[in-house]
Amino acid sequence: MILPDRKPSMQESRPKAAAGGLVRAALAGAGHSLAEAFANLDRAPEIQQITRHPQRKLIGARLAVKPEEGQGYWDLTQIGEDVYVAVLNFAYKDPRVEMLPGDGLIQFYFKLCGDLTMGVSRTEPLRLNRPSLLVYSQPAGLDLQEWTAPSVRERSVAITLRPRFLLENFLSAVVDAPPQLQALISVSPGQLRYCQLPLTTTMFEIATRLVDNPYTGIISLLHTEALTMELLCTAVAGFSTLEHSPSKEYSDIDLRCLHAARNFLMKHLSPAPTIRHVARAVGMNETYLKRGFRAVFGETLFAFSVRCRMQEALTLLVREPRLPVARVAEAVGYSHQTSFATAFRRHFGICPKDARSPRSRLPGLLNGASPVTRIVTSAEGAEP
Asked: Are residues 238 and 258 in the same domain?
């Protein structure tokens, strides 16, 4: 599915300052690439425990979360010139926003727990709040944003690599790769491609061992390198499994209906449609719709509807500063302002009126993203 949208300029979409960002902002400043962040490991004052293994071209370091900002850390490992590994184990007190400039790399994001959202397009942010594997390719010159929910423990492993590394070490040629993986390797200029797969039990166990690395020093680096390669093996094999998986669970007609339901929820914000209303609009049984929507898209119809309405509410609050909060609430399907304020605070971590504050970081979430290609499979989003 391709979602047309406006490509933001670097000046327009970058956070105003490094404060409130994530690992890239902390190491290299807002708007810098992952490679630039890793290149600063030696110079960043926040870095702890730098370790090197020259023979295997490994370097590792820990970036601790400041106590006043939350708790936890990032464990960062670079393998040669082509692979960057970030182990996430943190909980920030406030929402954090980071701009991700396109660098032509592919990321395998193994989600164990937490609540992180990627702004893959202005109308359709991708929320990752359950175990899953997200694989995406981001062409150079294409910028995205991601943000974390407040006070939520994030445990994940992000393996970012150059496409050539994947080809040279895991595939004999692009044509030999499963179709979904081919699409990710063969990046089209100006379009983000992403695919969300189930996180299998094996992936979950390996990623957990990476997060809970019991070693230190050089042994820790070797442990990380070994488990990184094992995780990539399971991910590439997972694409092959998808290629041969049964397709009768969700037929083409079923998938079209489910996507129609998603589009319907995106367009009908007030009044908030009921499940019966959506089912009738797309011609699908209510029970099958609920089950299929969660399996394919990884969240319930209600959760997706709330997320769309909250994003629209944020847009109205920031871009229509004179519009009363009560009117904003009505525009996104809330009859009572107090109910809207509760839902908004639960979603973004602050009150609606505070979103208009000059100090708020939420307006940065409104910057448009670029066109997106989503690689949809019948097994996508299924429980492990």
From this structure: no
**Domain that residue 352 falls in:** 252-356
Distance CA 30, CA 35 (A): 13
Whether 97 contacts 147, CB under 8 Å: yes
Which parts of the chain are beta strand (E)? 2-3, 47-53, 58-64, 70-79, 83-92, 96-100, 105-113, 116-118, 126-128, 132-138, 144-148, 154-161, 192-197, 372-374
pLDDT in tens, 96-120: 999 899 889 999 999 999 889 887 6
pTM above 0.85, yes or no: no
Per-residue pLDDT reduced to its tens digit, 192-217 = 888 878 788 899 999 999 999 999 99
CATH number of the structural domain spanning residue 219: 2.60.120.10
Same domain, 297 and 230: no
Report the alpha-carbon distance of residue 31 to residue 100 in Å, rounded: 7
